TrEMBL record:
InterPro entries cross-referenced by the UniProt entry: NTF2-like_dom_sf, SEC_C_motif, YchJ-like, YchJ-like_M
Name of the molecule in the record: UPF0225 protein Daes_0912
Pfam assignment, any one: SEC-C
Family: Belongs to the UPF0225 family.
Domain YchJ-like middle NTF2-like residue range list: 29-128
Classification via NCBIfam families: PRK01617.1 (NF002449), PRK01752.1 (NF002486)
């Protein structure tokens, strides 16, 4: 039975991230490594997450916290926003992505600009910086012609919506 790849590429997992995670072949680009690392979180392939780190990133790696995050999260999807470099002929690359997940029923988004570098034939994750997006309002939007929530009896646009 075939399954779609968790990375959202639209390909079958065995033809997309599986060969990289299994070590059958190296990821050809920084984006392919990013996608395979996301899939590894979804599938709890934690050894791959550690193996795909650059040597300088290993000093900050904590097996326990990686396992806790992978185990506690329900992974909901990956979106690649932009890539800079990271191609088959490059030695460095940056991938900006958002990974959606839920913990205890609360949906969250991790947006990061990740740095990658090529070591020999293998791309490795070097570091990442959080990228903040626009603020997210969780309360329902009040329509201009709806009653004002302050209880005045006026329309919102004529009261607190001025």
């Amino acid at each position: 039975m075939t399954k779609p790849c968790p990375c959202g590429s639209g390909k079958e997992h065995v033809e997309c991230c599986r060969p990289y995670i299994s070590g059958e072949k190296p990821a050809p680009t920084a984006e392919a490594l990013m996608r395979s690392r996301y899939s590894a979180y979804v599938l709890k392939e934690l050894d791959y997450l550690k193996q795909s780190l650059a040597p300088e990133a290993l000093k900050d790696h904590d097996d326990t916290s990686v396992r806790e995050w992978a185990d506690s999260a329900q992974w909901l999807g990956l979106e690649i926003h932009e890539t800079w470099g990271g191609g088959q002929e490059d030695d460095a690359g940056i991938v900006e992505f958002s990974a959606r997940y839920a913990i205890d029923g609360e949906e969250l988004t991790h947006r990061e600009r990740s740095q990658f570098k090529r070591i020999g034939d293998h791309w490795r994750y070097l570091d990442g910086n959080m990228v903040s997006g626009p603020p997210i309002k969780k309360e329902p939007k009040i329509g201009r012609n709806e009653p004002c929530p302050c209880g005045s009896g006026k329309k919102y646009k004529k009261c607190c919506g001025k």
